[in-house]
């Protein structure tokens, strides 16, 4: 199953390569770092790097302790494949968090501008509309056109399938029950659960109809009196 998961990382690596060479991503990142919110982005990424490093090391050590009792040659090969897998997932996770935070900060900038604008000043909305269209183009470029969202969805689906596979194996093999099963489930569930939650945060920031969440849609509706 590790070999299968490594094979699915091919589109992920291609999407990351495309994103790194994306001019829109480079310009948006440089512009954000030059703004006052650049400090927030730097602090977030430092915390993300630290957290991802600790989490991946803990999972890797746990997985290695689980397989070290096997044949030595098999153990070495499996450990090397696990190191390769965790390296790829680490780079993907950090990149995913960077793109997510960058997208959310750009959305927050527009939300703050709308909040500070008097609701009776109708002439500001053409400018907000153009800014919103530019924001949509940027988010679309970072996620869909780069292939990052499609590759991430493929990885999330595979992780969920691996969880189902692990639970099925545990039903038939008592050695998998207990902490090995929970370690496997947690290690596979972190990525899809976290990724789907972060995507939901972007959707809420844009389209939530609940005014307390202060989404772009709810703010526009409130300002226009609808």
TrEMBL record:
Domain of life: Eukaryota
Membrane-crossing residue ranges in chain numbering: 46-66, 78-100, 148-169, 181-200
Keywords: Membrane, Signal, Transmembrane, Transmembrane helix
Residues of the signal peptide: 1-22
Entry keyword Transmembrane helix: yes
Record protein name field: XK-related protein
